[in-house]
Amino acid sequence: MEGSVRYDRSWGIEESLEQFQCLVRQHELQSSVGQSHVAVRKLHRDFCTLNAMEMARLAKAALGSTDSQLKVKALEQVKVATQKLRNSMTLADIKELQSAEKVLQMEEEIRKCNAEMTTLRESIEDLIKGGGPPIAGPVGSGKAEVGTNRKWFYCSDCHVGGHGRRFCRYLLKRPNWRIYPSEEWFQDRNGQVSHCPLGKQGVDFTDETYFSRICMHIKGRTWLEDKRKLYEFVPDLMPYTYVIQNRKWLGDVPESVPADAPPWPWFLKETDRNWGTSVHCLSGPDECLENAKDDATYVVQKHIPDPLLYTNGEKCHIKFYNLLVGLDDGVTWRLYTYRDGYLSISPKAWSPDDLSKECQVTIIRTKRINDWPYWEKVYGKCQAGVATVIKRAAEQGKLEGRNKIQFEIISADYIVTTNEDVYLLEFNTGPVLKDAEDSPDVHDAGMVDGALHIVEPWEGGSPELWDLALECKGVPPKPEQFASDF
């Protein structure tokens, strides 16, 4: 079906209907085109048949002649015409088979789409009759407990973004999960469209928290992803950090670097941006201040001493994955850490003289970390560091509970010294994740499956390589927080 539209999973009724109509139209067009191609081949075969018959007649007449050259020429023409006829018959048969196969493929694509629409209709009928999940809060009432006698569980893609659709795809691998369609909810003044499950129904999982029994975003996550906020309560785990706001130092002011001092990199980072998109490597704090922009807040850090380098002298940092789960009692937090992370390695050998991003900024996940000889030595230190962050954030009320379960896969960036000390650089909420379908050799399917099993267990699942690192209690949310939790 090269060049054809294939069936693709739909997340809404209109999308599914449009795809079905598109597939039907395509089936009609391709059938017509296929029949035309077959007709052309058959016509060519008929011409070749007539030509072969004519060459045979001429050859028969030539056999009665005494001219030997005429006989040889006539026989050669018969041979060529026969070969052309044979080729034409073969091509006609092939084209007929190809056309029939493409028709069958298109009919199978249509069958899949039709089956999906049937399932969507059944899902709608089931939820209308009360077969969906009880949703705590405005959408429903009571504690979000999962009934034991439910046949189906439902997920919706409400186009919020992040890993919502990815998590839906993994949940749909389970035999008792189905798609519940989404629809347009409202449009804001800027034209931004928000979606919700059809009929504003609550479902088991969707990326729109208001309608979801399971929330995919932690309330209070800004305290983890904002570098300045993070430093406020875990300064002992991070490199010493200064702050620039509106092109002025806020709080401590670093000393200027003497002109005769050996070169050493300093980093200027916007507080609320990740993945190295706003990291500038500069020669000192004065240059950091010069490169800061108005109406922006930055953290400024001096490069750690004695960084542990990779095999050929490249700078590297650990991409350390964590699963944070807030239980539906609103106070209990669980932290899981993943034993198989990644190393991000710079493309150039590290030098304090080289301020280029290729040398100083390591943002691309380069390789799995398990064969790195230092991983076993520092895994426990990284785990303990993140546990400290979560415990303090929970106890200080920075992480806010909900009356439903909430979770998030978060990566932490760590850099290691030659003494095997570790420094926390930042957290990334919504980190890069790869699926087996797109990256067969190196992917995160096991990590995602394991995380979803911890959050929503099922009989065919496994926690995979996730380790429970911490369980702690946070500050009980106020009643009005539960009411405004959506």
Protein model, in words:
The protein is extended, with a radius of gyration of 33 Å. The strands form three sheets. Strands 1, 2, 5, 6, 12, 13, 14, 15, 16, 17 and 18 form an eleven-stranded mixed beta sheet that branches. Strands 8-7-11-9-10 form a five-stranded antiparallel beta sheet, sandwiched between helices. The chain has four domains: 116 residues; 63 residues, no CATH class; 64 residues; 178 residues, D-amino Acid Aminotransferase, Chain A, domain 1. Strand 1, helix 3 and strand 2 form a beta-alpha-beta unit. Helix content is 37%, strand content 22%. It is α+β, with helices and mostly antiparallel strands and 486 residues long. It contains ten helices and 18 strands. About 1% of the residues have low confidence. It holds the Pfam family TTL. InterPro entries: TTL/TTLL_fam (IPR004344). It comes from Cladocopium goreaui. GO terms for molecular function: ligase activity. Keywords: Ligase.
